[in-house]
Amino acid sequence: MSLWSNTLGQSYGISCKKCGASTEVSEGHGRRYSQNFENLFFNFMDESERISFSRKVPDGSSNRIDRCKFSMEPLRCSKCLLISSMLVWSIAFKNGWTYSPPLRCESCRGDLKSFSFPEGEFKSQCWKCENDTLSAELSAMWD
Predict the structure, then answer these.
(1) What are the residues facing 88 on neighbouring strands?
(2) Which of 89, 125, 127, 135 lies 20 to 30 Å (CA to CA) from residue 105?
């Protein structure tokens, strides 16, 4: 599995072999999504994210963006172990200021960390039971 894919987006079903808990995660962004600030700001951020980001930009930084990247990424909560995915993004300005929003679990507000997994069975604790065998299967790909 390659995070931050430049050509495809993928969705995976992850499930527990013991209790049947399951979730879907996505990664990538597909070729049709250019990695520029305008696309991120107008097509991916919701209104509250746009307002929050705009308030954090230092004076004199507007319209001077050097790099912008974003992609769906599989994440795991460090507190409740829930596996999910969300849009992970970062912006670098020409003056050196960079910003990436904090990644928080929607369930418990714990910190989210990148989560890599192979297709098929793998060893990792289930978020609902104490089983340590999960399974991941590719469920969709998009361009």
Answers:
(1) 71
(2) 135
| 109 torsion bin: left (phi>0), alpha (psi -120 to 50), beta (else) | left
Element (H, E) at 34: none
CA distances from 127 to 13, 28, 105, 124, 134 (A): 14, 24, 13, 9, 10
DSSP state of 128: S
Specify the residue for token string 């996505």: 26
Locate 132 and state its tokens: 């340590």
For 60-75, give one letter per residue: b (16+ CB within 10 A) or e: ebeeebeebebbbbbb
Count CB atoms within 10 A of the CB of residue 48. 8
CA gap 21, 84 in Å, rounded: 13
Share of the chain above pLDDT 70, in %: 90
Answer yes or no: pTM beyond 0.85: no
| Contact present, 138 and 12 (Cβ < 8 Å) | yes
**Segment 61-77 mean pLDDT:** 88
